[in-house]
Amino acid sequence: MLFIGAPWIFLHYFTQFRRAKGISVEDERLLDDLHDTARRLDSRLESIERIIAADNPGWKDGVLANARPADRLTDDRDADARRPSIHR
Q1: Residues 62, 75: contact at Cβ < 8 Å?
Q2: b/e map 16-46, b = 16+ CB within 10 Å
Q3: What contacts 67, CB < 8 A, 6 or more positions away?
Q4: CA 79, 59, 53, 78: dihedral to nearest 10 degrees?
Q5: For residue 8, what are the CA distances in angstroms to 3, 12, 21, 26?
Q6: Which of 43, 73, 83, 86 is paired with 32 by a 20 to 30 Å CA distance?
Q7: What would the pLDDT profile of 41-84 be if each residue is shown by its tens digit?
Q8: Residue from 87, 64, 62 nearest 74 by CA
């Protein structure tokens, strides 16, 4: 039973994998929609951050005090870009 069942299961799933090698048109369309949604959400978030920064310039510093380390890394890069450089 082991000598017949194991190869049959292997070959069955191997052929299933080969048959479904690429993504379907529907999956590709879904990925495109998700990508568009992510871009729009990113744009909205940037707009909200600009509005908040105009009203309260130091708002992000208070947020970073309670942020996780990964968030601090991302936001520190953004903060470095906003800091004026002092070269004499």
Answers
A1: no
A2: eeeeeeeeeeeeeeeeeeeeeeeeeeeeeee
A3: 75
A4: 10
A5: 9, 6, 20, 31
A6: 73
A7: 999 999 998 998 888 888 777 666 666 666 555 555 555 555 44
A8: 64
